[in-house]
Amino acid sequence: MENNKLALHGLAGTGKSHTVTNLLGYHKDHTHYSTGDTAREIARCHGMTVDVYMVYARDNGIPIDKILDDSLCALNDNPTPHIIDSRLGFFFLKHAYKVYLFGEPRVLAKRRWKQLRKENYKEHKHLTIAETEKKMAERNKNDITKYRTLYGVTCNDFVHYDLIIDTTNLTVEQVTTIIDSNYSAWCKGEAPRRALYKRVADPEFI
């Protein structure tokens, strides 16, 4: 099978969305797939926001998780090159270069706090960094519990990924460069060892 799929999972505040945009600019032959976008499109077709639809699906016995999982699994048989933004890409994609972005919780919370206030200052003007960090920690904990229960996997375990990047002291551009360099080598069959980056250079092989 051809090496042409990159699966990216990043915590909130790691700059994942901007990183995906940059990578799509580098790899113009790749198609973007996002589990979040797929869920939002399903919700839109029902005239709801994604949060409202998720509650609606749960209350009405709609297997939304399986629907999203099946959509992701279908990429295994799709020959088109893809850059995939999904928490479970590492689990459902059998042949992809798998990347995980994380960082110091307070740094990620501050980034997320700034983003929320920029997007909607009126709604978030009283939000504090500490509150943002608490909400992010709760969501991460809930996600870990959910995926352990449903699939028996821990989504933040480094063992699932080919490339792990601590974004705490890195810019989005630096993160993009690291991913592009390693992914491009993988596409050529030059598979690097599992690497953890905390700086731009000198990866720690694990």
Give a description of the structure.
With 206 residues, the protein is an alpha/beta fold. It contains nine helices and seven strands; from the N terminus they run βαβαααβαβαααβαββ. It has helices spanning 16-26, 35-45, 50-59, 64-73, 89-92, 105-119, 121-124, 129-151, 172-187, and strands at residues 5-10, 31-34, 82-85, 97-102, 163-166, 195-197, 204-205. Strands 2-3-1-4-5-6-7 form a seven-stranded mixed β-sheet. Helix 6 (105-119) crosses helix 8. The mean pLDDT is 92.
Overall pLDDT confidence: 92
Can you give the helix content as a percent range?
Answer: 40-55%
How large is the count of helical segments?
9
- Which stretches are poorly predicted, pLDDT < 50 over at least 5 residues? none
Q: Based on DSSP secondary structure assignment, what is the total number of beta strands?
A: 7
Output the strand order for the largest sheet: 2-3-1-4-5-6-7
Quick structural gist:
The chain is of the alpha/beta class. It is built from nine helices and seven strands; from the N terminus they run βαβαααβαβαααβαββ. α2 (35-45) crosses α3 (50-59) and α6 packs across α8 (129-151).
